[in-house]
Structure formats: C-alpha cells, structure tokens
Design a protein that fits this description.
The complex is a heterodimer of chains A (about 270) and B (about 180). By secondary structure, chain A is mainly β. Chain A has one domain. Chain A is globular. Helix content of chain A is about 5%, strand content about 50%. Chain A is built from 2 helices and 19 strands. In chain A, strands 2, 5, 6, 9, 10, 11, 15, 16, 18 and 19 form a 10-stranded mixed β-sheet that branches. By secondary structure, chain B is mainly beta. Chain B has one domain. A 5-stranded mixed β-sheet of chain B has the order 6-3-2-8-9. A 4-stranded antiparallel β-sheet of chain B has the order 7-1-11-10. Chain B has a two-stranded antiparallel sheet with strand order 4-5. In chain B, strand 4 and strand 5 form a beta hairpin. The radius of gyration of chain B is 16 Å and the shape is globular. Chains A and B meet through strand 2 of A and strand 5 and helix 1 of B.
C-alpha cells in the first residue's frame, strides 16, 4: 500500500514517462515558407492521438531552438483544461526544434503518517529531503517531448544533441518524410549511440480506426533504426529506457523517455 | 495521378560535351487551367519543371503563386503545397526568381516557349527528361502531370497529358 502510494505520487509528478498516457507537441504544420511565418502548437497528454482529452502538457521546460542555435520565446501561451497552446514566429529560414524537457529527481516519503512529495535537483536533494525520511523513494528521470518545424530549406544545426537523455539524430531529415518512403534516424543517450532501444510509432487519428496500428523498431548497434511510412499523417514516436547513471545514491535508477511528433507528407 | 501519353522516347546519341551546344532546340508548352464550377474559387499555384531520368529537378520553367501579402500571410506560405516541386527545388530557392516565378493565372490556356538559349535550358545536357506540371488550389485539390521528352528533339514531336481535376490538357511540342 505504501509502495503504491509512493508510486502514485511519482506518477503524478511525472506526467510524461512511459506509462499509459502519451505526451505530445502538435504543430499546425511542419513545412512552411516565408519571411516570418507563424505556426501554432498544441501541447497535451492523452491516450488518443492527437486528441485533447486528458491533461495539458505543461510548458515550463519548453525550449524553442532556432536554426542558428539561438533560443526563441513562444508567443501567446495559454493553458486550458486539456491543452497548452503557443505560437512561434519563424523569423529564420531553416529548421526549428521545439522541445519540452524535464530532468530531475522525484522523491516521496512519509512524514507524520502523511505522504510527502518532492521534486528537485541533486543539489536541493541534500538540503530539502530529510536524512531520516521514512520509506523514501527517489526516482531520477530525463524526458524529452519534441517536434521539428522547417521554414524553407531543412537544416540540422538546431538538432545537435544536447548530450542529456535520449535524443534523435537525423539521418533522414525529420521534415523530409514522405508516405511510402523509408526514413532512418539514430537514437543517442547522453550523446552516445543507443543500441537495443525499442521504438513505437503510431499515426494520429486513432479515434477513426479500430487498431493502434503501431509500428515497432529496435535500434541497431549504431543507434539507428528505419521506418517506412505507410501513409501520410502526423506520427507519434516514443521510446524509453533506464540505466543506473544516477546523481544521488538514494535513486536506484534513471528513467529516460523520448517522444517526437513527425509529419509525413503524401507523395 | 500522373499520366504519360508519349509512346516512346527517341534515343539521342551523346556528342562531345561542348561549352555551347552545337545544336538548337526549343520546347513549347500549353498548360490548361480548367474553369471550375465551385462556390469558392482561387487561382491555383502551378509549378512547371524538367526532371532528369533520376527524377531530379534540373530546370524550373515556371512557378505561379500569389506574390503578395494577404491577411493570412504572404503568398509564399503556401508554396510548400506544391509538394513535389517544393521538395525537389522550391525549398532551395529564394523566391521570387527572375524569369521563373510569376503571379497566378486565370482559367484558360497558357503558352510558354523555351529555347536552348534561355538560362533554364541552356545547361541541359542531351538526354531523356520529363516535363512535370504540378497544380494546387486553395480549398481545392492537387494534380501532377508528367510528359517524357528527349532533349534536344531530332524532329518535331508533340505529346500530351490530360488532367482530371486541377489541370486540363498539357501539350508539349519539342522542336529541333
């Protein structure tokens, strides 16, 4: 019981790990052209793709990287019952990376018979979590939920791995995907090729069909995997893993998750 | 979607590569934008280009798009809807392009003529190519037609492709 309580607490503070719900960013379009065109993005967590029916995806950890590597602020951010919305002005030509990342420690314990939850960093762990905390459970996680949008010609400068957690390295550019064609990507963990990661890919519009029709792939020794897109549409790509690269000894493992929304165009 | 109606292509003997071609040739094409009976009509965006045997865009002949600002943004915003052209050429260009881009055109027949002296075709090596015409219309559909041809033509030849939705008949006349 205590364990499940603690787990429930963790689930609450980890909105987008590899549990039942799917977190995603949904751009209004991924291929656009012009002097400074705008796009709008929905950010949500749901079971169905891509419908807003569970909770909004919080965008505290949102980073928009412009083609030249600089950071861009989202505009008109609003969070409703089921989704967060924001706009982005694409002033530069090239590819933008929009990512919600969240890395940290999540703890739960009992204090005077009541559950306590805590979220922070390795530094604040030492000062904020009591040394004698009862039934202390600590999890470390690194999550990334992202998508890519290109104004004009696709570029890759904004897609350079940050070096933390799971990231996708393009072999095929993520804004150059077409139905019937194969695309290849590489997955890295902390910047290094990640072999044996299981990737799940689901096309949007799940409400209008009977099966998820998920596509599965596993990364090879060099971290690469390929997928042949059966149809045009918005696809949700998810993978996750865990390791023991923890920052504090109380954390038993580090959980890593990655989600990308990719648009596949018709021929 | 694409229809090819040319029976056979003529094999061209490759001559020595010369900086200036020792021959002359021209392409005349007629593109029909059909008159459509729809509640909301907007002129289509049209791209006309030449593809090599490996399906690369080797010459943009014409691109018609809305070249001005509107309440919904500048007309370039919808250029990627010319999906194949955008992928093969458009996204690598800075529009407008002299001698290639122009405003959208009304329903009717539009004739275009290109000779080997014009920049679009002057760099085209002798060989087999495909003329591609792609049209996309706001709140409408998209259609793409292809006509294979040999460059330069040894004798006058005419080929046609007929669209079924966004394009009417496209006629290509190749002349030595």
């Amino acid at each position: 019981m205590k364990r499940s309580l603690a787990l429930a607490a963790l689930l609450t503070v980890l909105p987008a790990t590899a549990f039942a719900h799917k977190a995603w960013l949904l751009p209004s379009q991924t291929v656009i052209a012009g002097n400074a065109p705008w796009i709008t993005v929905d950010a949500a967590v749901s079971n169905d793709l891509f419908y807003f029916n569970h909770v909004p995806l919080r965008t505290e950890g949102l980073t928009i990287t412009a083609p030249d590597g600089s950071k861009v602020d989202p505009q008109n951010v609003a969070t409703g019952k089921y989704r967060t919305v924001f706009d982005v002005e694409l002033k530069q030509p090239g590819t933008y990376r929009l990512a919600v990342t969240n890395a940290g420690l999540f703890g739960s314990w009992e204090e005077n018979g009541k559950p306590r939850r805590w979220r922070g960093t390795p530094a604040s762990f030492a000062t904020e979590v009591p040394k004698d905390a009862r039934n202390l459970q600590v999890a470390q996680s690194v999550m990334r939920v992202e998508t890519f949008v290109t104004n004009g010609k696709p570029t890759t400068d904004a897609l350079k791995p940050s070096g933390e957690g799971i990231e996708l390295v393009p072999v095929t550019h993520p804004n150059d995907l077409f139905a019937g064609e194969a695309a290849t990507f590489k997955l890295v963990v902390d910047g290094k090729p990640a072999a044996g990661l299981e990737v799940e890919i689901i096309r949007g519009g799940t409400r209008y069909r009977d099966a998820q029709d998920e596509i599965k792939a596993t990364t090879a020794a060099d971290g690469s995997f390929s997928v042949t897109w059966p149809k045009a549409g918005m696809y949700w790509l998810e993978t996750g893993t865990k390791d023991t690269k923890v920052s504090v000894p109380q954390a038993k493992e580090r959980r890593l998750s990655y989600v990308a929304t990719l648009e596949v165009l018709p021929q | 979607m694409s229809k090819t109606l040319m029976p056979a292509t003529v094999t061209i003997a490759f001559g020595a590569l010369l900086s200036a071609p020792a021959w002359s040739a021209e392409l005349t094409l007629t593109v029909e934008i059909p008159k459509l009976d729809v509640a909301e009509y907007h002129r289509p965006y049209v791209a006309i280009w030449v593809e090599s045997a490996d399906q690369k865009d080797v010459a943009d002949l014409a691109v018609w798009y809305q070249m001005r600002d509107t309440a919904e943004g500048h007309g370039t915003k919808w250029l990627p809807d010319l999906r194949q052209w955008w992928r093969k050429s458009g996204r690598n260009l800075q529009v407008p392009v002299d001698g290639v881009t122009g405003p959208t055109r009304p329903a009717g027949l539009h004739s275009l003529k290109f000779t080997d002296k014009q920049p679009q075709l002057s760099r085209l090596a002798p060989g087999n190519y495909t003329l591609v015409v792609e049209a996309v219309r706001e709140v409408g559909g998209r259609e793409l037609l292809k006509i294979p041809f040999a460059w330069p033509a040894r004798k006058a030849a005419t080929a046609k492709a007929r669209g079924s939705s966004e394009l009417g008949t496209v006629t290509l006349n190749a002349k030595p």
